[in-house]
Design brief:
Blueprint (H helix, E strand, L loop, with lengths): L1 E3 L2 E4 L3 H12 L4 E5 L13 E3 L3 H10 L4 H8 E7 L9 E6 L1 H14 L3 E4 L2 E7 L2 E7 L3 E3 L2 E4 L8 E4 L2 E4 L11 H7 L4 E8 L2 E3 L9 E3 L23 E5 L2 H9 L22 H7 L7 E6 L6 E5 L7 H8 L10 E3 L2 E8 L16 E3 L9 H19 L13 H12 L23 H12 L4 H23 L1 E4 L2 E4 H4 L7 H8 L4 H11 L1 H13 L22 H10 L4 H5 L6 H19 L1
Parallel strand pairs: 1-10, 2-3, 2-11, 3-7, 11-22
Antiparallel strand pairs: 4-6, 5-6, 8-9, 9-10, 12-13, 12-21, 14-21, 15-19, 15-20, 16-17, 17-18, 18-19, 23-24
Helix pairs in contact: 1-9, 2-9, 2-11, 3-4, 6-8, 12-15
Amino acid sequence: MKYIFDLIVIGGGHAGVEAALVAKRSGLHVALITLDKTKTGRMSCNPAIGGIGKSHLAKEIDALGGYMAEATDLAGIQFRTLNKKKGPAVQATRAQTDKNTYEKAIQKKLSKEEIEIFDDEIKDFGTNKAVIEKAISKNNEYEAKAFVLTTGTFLNGTILIGHTKQEGGRIDEKKATGLEKFFEKQELKLGRLKTGTPPRLSSQTINYSLLEPQPGDESEAYMSFLGPKNKHPRQTSCHITQTNENTHKIIEENIKKSAMYSGLISGVGPRYCPSIEDKIVRFSEKKHHQIFVEPEGLETDWVYPNGVSTSLPKEVQEEYIRSIKGFEKAAILQYGYAVEYDYIDPRNLHKTLATKNNPNLFLAGQINGTTGYEEAGAQGIVAGINASLYVKNEAPWTPQRQNSYMGVLVDDLTRLGVSEPYRMFTSRAEHRLLLRQDNADERMYQTAKKLNIINKEREDIFLTKQNEKEEIKKKLQETKIMVSGVKKTTEELCKRNDFTEEEIKKITKQDGKNFTEVYFDIRYSGYIDKQQRELEKMKNLEEHSLGLVFDYKEVIGLSGELQERLNIKKPKNLFEASNIEGITPAALNVLSIHLKKIDALRAV
């Protein structure tokens, strides 16, 4: 059968959902094709949204009218602020969610927006020269002007537990095949990556009296800028336990039985979310590793032990799980497993996320080598926006790294590629003082307005907030006090270390989230100006020779990871260094400072 749409999204994960919704908001006739529509929006791994760098992406999606943050608020059963003792630029909201409620909220939204969803598997594309005209399944053809492909871990996916290997993109779900042949014809570079998940435990069999409670600290926090409109469910607590020397001994004795260490897996796993086997091998000096015991919902018995992802055989999983404090009698409801899957080298993409070979095919999510719901959702909305603009024959939109984490994400992927699953951190953004999670709406508003992808309700909430901020700033400028015999405005005091935010609140008799946002806008203004000046200095990178740097371990301010990569690559100048994976403008600035020191020493 033949179907005709403006735009077709393939894949019903977090990337696919945001791509389909933004295309619909753009006024297009949209279809979403997925292997099983009852699992659209599913949280395949940990039941949480947000965290360091990730909440920034979730809030940028929200500021562009996306749905991830709203679904999080509707499903969030615990809210916490991470990095509370640090500055607001690196603070992050993390929400534990009810997995089933989140999934249902996504599906309800897609239904409300009247997006047509098909249970089908796309095997190939029909092209006219470089332009794709249709997506082809076994029994159907779907014609459209543009396509967004978001296959997640399903493209040629393999599930591994111990020495057992089976096809699939998630446990008990089939893989997607056929499209890898299309990419090979297009001469797009394919690679293999892997991810993993821990065993799920029965809550009724866990001895919580032996665990450390971890209650939420922000029940009134909201991921979406819409705030209390999307009411939270009942709030609950997580818990903490840890592995021990006996746990480590069991894993060490069985390490060769793991799919990771038996040679079954060729793909590279995420460095920043390693399996428990990786932790034991890489950090052999550590006597224990922390485990966050996270409920998967309010009405389910399933528990997610965050920190013990594994591909060990089932019997070994049972043994090491029951060696952990509080898990002595734990029943495993679903065994942990690794997933290996195909991805496309993202250097095959423009910054619009369109493939360089096919102008109307856009890729988003794990197919581009990323990991995480938020990274997927962010790519989904970027790809969905640009696919919609392509259909309308309008100029594309590229997020910029100086004003968004989306820009950092897209720039890193398309410029540097990946050698392991890419995860967002605040440390990747050289402008993080400006790119706070609380001002994502302000940073993205003009784009959202220009593209006409936010509704009047969102616009009214944003404009009201901006008016309130202007009033706060005006009062800070008008209120003056004597400091050391000199009259100073409270706006000036915001930049001083001898006055706290709380003291200025009392002086001006102002309070609330908007005050905090204004306070840090003012406090960081000088640093932001300095960053802009530094970027101007870094424009002519080829002029800065690195020939006199013999060992990058001598460069103070570089991470050990970057020192190692630079020592291997030995770039000739800062331009070559900028194209090495993981090198950010902040790292380039560190190198530039080091070069100045070398020049100063030579001049003596």
